[in-house]
Automatic annotation (TrEMBL):
Pathway: Cofactor biosynthesis; pyridoxine 5'-phosphate biosynthesis; pyridoxine 5'-phosphate from D-erythrose 4-phosphate: step 3/5; Amino-acid biosynthesis; L-serine biosynthesis; L-serine from 3-phospho-D-glycerate: step 2/3. The modification N6-(pyridoxal phosphate)lysine is found at residue 196. Pyridoxal 5'-phosphate binds at residues 76-77, 102, 152, 172, 195, 237-238. Belongs to the class-V pyridoxal-phosphate-dependent aminotransferase family. SerC subfamily. It is found in: Cytoplasm. This is Phosphoserine aminotransferase. It comes from Pseudoxanthomonas wuyuanensis. GO terms for molecular function: O-phospho-L-serine:2-oxoglutarate aminotransferase activity; pyridoxal phosphate binding. It catalyses: 4-(phosphooxy)-L-threonine + 2-oxoglutarate = (R)-3-hydroxy-2-oxo-4-phosphooxybutanoate + L-glutamate; O-phospho-L-serine + 2-oxoglutarate = 3-phosphooxypyruvate + L-glutamate. Its EC number is 2.6.1.52.
Length: 361
């Protein structure tokens, strides 16, 4: 059996040791005579798995005690809607900085509940840059300011945490959480669907500064209430136990590999290799994002025409490089270089790019 290098944007590649461990203990977890997904989420065994995952994530990212950590089903998009329900009063203004596809999605999810003010918009510039902070039109009374830390489709990433004044900063970190050190205390809420950098799809991690849980927000059912989820340790209803367990194994693996500092080093190296291959190709490969905000995690790039793009996708797959086809919204090629994609994967991609250009350039 050979596992290919998998450049999928999400659900994405997982660390092989994690998959092997899950396989080895699938039928009988830790001697209980059943798999981890066949036992109660209220059992001592599962609660131990769940608490360890939270403790490991806190250690990995450096999450202060005054932040709650939730493991919830519903993905990142559901959290986008819950932000408005939990943290903004009906009709209150919320500020959004739009730097790509997911920023627009985030706005769509809250429009029924609040007054959205777009404080800055990268769309007129084709999402090739992040509008300079000095030009953002922040509202004086916004409930929060929302950014997308890394735009998975457009390949635009904040390289610094913006200062937004007194309103709490909320950030969608779905495709870059745990990819480098992060100062959690600069944020009110950090959320991420797991399927990019943390584990399998089906669970989202939500990190909330506890004082925000006191906000009354909007009329909502209990199940949409972060305070209720926090009070019940994310077990208000049956949590996605398999996903929580596997994410926990990924956290253990990341810590054992050296933590976020080590992944920052690897991710910088991988992305530099690919950007150098693009920029050094004499225009055969092109990436349009301003160098200062180029994503380290998702690199969209383009070939001279559609025929070559299609050939690149099919030949790279034959060469053991999976899922390089770009998102349909932008076309071209996209290489996602999450934590679990080894440096050798990026090296193999770059070697393939050079060879492909020699044969087709
Ligand atoms: C994938 C992704 C989402 C959507 O996640 P779902 O879990 O499918 O809802 C949202 N934001 C970003 C930045 C993403 O990469």
């Amino acid at each position: 059996m050979t596992r290919a290098y998998n450049f999928s944007a999400g659900p994405a590649t997982l660390p092989e040791p994690v998959l092997r461990q899950a396989q080895a203990e699938l039928l009988d977890w830790n001697g209980v005579g059943a798999s981890i997904v066949e036992i109660s989420h209220r059992s001592a065994e599962f609660i131990a798995v769940a608490s360890r995952a939270e403790a490991d994530l806190r250690k990995l990212i450096g999450i202060p005690e005054d932040y709650a950590v939730l493991f919830l089903s519903g993905g990142a998009t559901t959290q986008q809607a819950l932000l408005a329900l939990n943290f903004a009063a009906p009709g209150q203004v919320v500020d959004y900085v739009v730097t790509g596809h997911w920023g627009k999605t985030a706005i769509r999810q809250v429009k029924p509940y609040v007054t959205v003010h777009v404080a800055a918009d990268g769309e007129p510039g084709g999402f090739r840059d992040i509008p300079p902070r000095a030009g953002w039109q922040l509202s004086p009374d916004a409930a929060y300011v929302h950014i997308t830390a890394n735009e998975t489709i457009h390949g635009v990433e904040f390289r610094d945490t913006p200062d937004v004044g007194t309103a709490p900063l909320f950030a969608d970190f779905s495709s870059s959480i745990a990819s480098e050190p992060l100062d959690v205390s600069r944020y009110g809420v950090i959320y991420a669907g797991a399927q990019k950098n943390l584990g399998p799809v089906g669970v989202a991690v939500v990190i909330i500064r506890r004082d925000l849980l006191e906000r009354s927000g909007q009329p909502r059912a209990d199940i949409f209430d972060y305070r209720s989820h926090a009070a019940r340790d994310s077990m208000l209803n049956t949590p996605p136990t398999w996903n929580w367990y596997l994410a926990g194994l990924v956290f253990q693996w990341m810590l054992a590999e050296g933590g976020v500092e080590e992944f920052a080093r690897r991710n910088a190296l991988k992305s530099q290799l690919v950007y150098q291959a693009i920029d050094g190709s004499g225009g055969f490969y092109r990436n349009h994002v301003a160098p200062a905000v180029r994503s380290r995690m998702n690199i969209p790039f383009f070939l001279p025409d559609e025929t070559l793009t299609a050939r690149f996708v099919s030949e790279s797959k034959d060469a053991g490089l999976l899922a390089l086809k770009g998102h349909k919204a932008v076309g071209g090629i996209r290489a996602s270089l999450y934590n679990a994609l080894p440096v050798e994967g990026a090296q193999a991609l770059v070697a393939f790019m050079r060879d492909f250009q020699q044969r087709n350039g």
